[in-house]
Amino acid sequence: MMAAGYGEMLRTRHAARLLAGTLVGRLPSATAALAIVLFARAEGGSYALAGALSAVYGVGNAIGQPLLGRAVDLFGQPRVMLPSAVLSALGMVLFCLVGLEPLPLAYAAMAVAGFFTPPLEGGLRALWPDVLKREDRIHAAYALDAVAQEVMYAVGPLAVTLIVAAWSEAAALLVINAIGVLGALAVVTSPPSRKWRSAPREAHWLGALRSRGLLVLLGAFFFVGSALGSISVASVAYADEHGGGMVSSYLLSALGVGALIGGVVYGGRQWAGEPERRLRLLVAGLAVCYLPLLLVPGVVAMTVLAGVAGVFLAPSLACAFVVVDRHAPRGTVTEAFSWLVTAFGVGASIGIAVVGPAVEYGGSDAGFAVAVGGGAVALLVLLAAQRSFGPPVAVAEAGALPENDRIGAVEPGFSAGHQA
């Protein structure tokens, strides 16, 4: 039954192409941190310099995603996504050409590559309701999207290491980014992408951020991201305390497998009730499943606990995608999804920054405590802001349904208006 549901969704015209194209197009951002560090080290740079270059890319990405998402809502997907994919790839080409000298140019190349990373995630989620039509298929697509992210983040770094082994670090950067452009091209040349138009939007400089419900969601997933980022560092510290080697890979792989299982099960059935309430329950499950990590038992038991910790991650993301679509103001759906990507990514970066000193002074126990704290705060944000995060009220004008109404209702107070 579960496989049949996913199969029906993927057999829908254009669905498989859009999902595959988006995943391939996102490979550069999924592998950037590793590829940049490997290239910088190969050029003779220190780990500190390599980390700084990677951080510039990450900051550029965090700034660019919502801004490019807003541009997509205003001008359509092909006019924004393909040029930005090309510019991002050219930034990486420049980085490969100049190396680390002159250093300001290398930093500029990283800023360009990060800022112009196309908002393919938000774009795909904006397309799903028009492509799939039915609510059950859309929810399955969101779940499969979250699961596919786990696969991509597992396969991407492996692809980088294989290209480095076969050719060089520079070749890895160039090949991955060329593949990314091809993925973006596959998406924007598809009929759904070319035909898609955002609903008319009211002029407001805050754009999607004027939705209180969306702000609550972004706050919660900032802390979910911080928890996930801290687990990656705490896993390395745990490995150092338990013989090193591949131990950290075991933990992170188990976390990914848990997320895969949870996402597939969640997307394989229909769920009754409001997604806002369901999201609170899923994030509560996420926070509770982080708690056993504080036990830090032996490697085998810890690997099992890491798998359990990942079970609610993909379902929480999939449900969050539905909630974003319900709360995004009219004409801002791509921007709203892009803000979720940014909040999650910035949270992960902050989590990594915070967990470093914690591990330094308290070992892996303290590192996993940061992750537990992140999960708990995410849940508290959702619980403390229940009034703002309740289900949106359906307000649809005859003949001018907001795009949010494709799968649910729309945030109150956002009626049709002129373009921002």
From TrEMBL:
<keyword id="KW-1133">Transmembrane helix</keyword>
<feature type="transmembrane region" description="Helical">
    <location>
        <begin position="80"/>
        <end position="100"/>
    </location>
</feature>
<dbReference type="GO" id="GO:0022857">
    <property type="term" value="F:transmembrane transporter activity"/>
</dbReference>
<feature type="transmembrane region" description="Helical">
    <location>
        <begin position="250"/>
        <end position="267"/>
    </location>
</feature>
<feature type="transmembrane region" description="Helical">
    <location>
        <begin position="214"/>
        <end position="238"/>
    </location>
</feature>
<keyword id="KW-0472">Membrane</keyword>
<keyword id="KW-0812">Transmembrane</keyword>
<feature type="transmembrane region" description="Helical">
    <location>
        <begin position="279"/>
        <end position="296"/>
    </location>
</feature>
<feature type="transmembrane region" description="Helical">
    <location>
        <begin position="336"/>
        <end position="354"/>
    </location>
</feature>
<dbReference type="Pfam" id="PF07690">
    <property type="entry name" value="MFS_1"/>
</dbReference>
<protein>
    <submittedName>
        <fullName>MFS family permease</fullName>
    </submittedName>
</protein>
<dbReference type="InterPro" id="IPR011701">
    <property type="entry name" value="MFS"/>
</dbReference>
<feature type="transmembrane region" description="Helical">
    <location>
        <begin position="45"/>
        <end position="68"/>
    </location>
</feature>
<feature type="transmembrane region" description="Helical">
    <location>
        <begin position="302"/>
        <end position="324"/>
    </location>
</feature>
<feature type="transmembrane region" description="Helical">
    <location>
        <begin position="140"/>
        <end position="164"/>
    </location>
</feature>
<feature type="transmembrane region" description="Helical">
    <location>
        <begin position="170"/>
        <end position="193"/>
    </location>
</feature>
<feature type="transmembrane region" description="Helical">
    <location>
        <begin position="366"/>
        <end position="385"/>
    </location>
</feature>
<dbReference type="InterPro" id="IPR036259">
    <property type="entry name" value="MFS_trans_sf"/>
</dbReference>
